[in-house]
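Final report, Chapter 2: Outcomes

The project's central promise was a pipeline that accepts a single protein chain and returns its three-dimensional structure in a standardized token representation, suitable for archiving and comparison. That pipeline is now operational. To close this chapter, we reproduce one record exactly as it appears in the project archive, with the input sequence first and the structure output second.
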Amino acid sequence: MKKVAIIMGSDSDLPIAEKAAAQLRELDIPFEVHVMSAHRTPDEACSFAKNAKANGFGVLISIAGMAAHLGGVLAANTTLPIIGVPGKSSFEGLDALLATVQMPSGIPVATVAVNGSKNAAILAAQMLALSDSDLDAKLVAMREQMADEVRAKDAKISAQFAE
């Protein structure tokens, strides 16, 4: 199975990255976590992206706040899918969200919600599951479990208000 890379722009993004890591662990997807700055270590970020496919990665998750150029830098240096997670820092994360979604034509970065790293991990899993039926089955089971949890909550609330 291909690996997923979680790349943080700063170690202050670790609480966000931990949620993605937990989801990937739950799905038994191999991953690595790194800190690379689009502004402070651009050579390392570019090199990582350029070599990611050869190093066994299938998807890169980029977590960055404020200027949030990391996803774009990674995307400019690989054809692998990049999933951007805007980090909530200044302006409640709006600045990071706008920086992440405003990519030029031809260099896409898929973007999830501010601090939405769990969804980034699930989206990465869905991408990898296109060629992995075992992973696809895990995702189907996860969806069924979520539905069962909602049905149980509905039954509990409905019973509470039943006459």
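Archive annotation: The first strand starts at residue 3 and ends at 8.
This record, like all others produced under the grant, will remain available to the consortium after the project formally closes.
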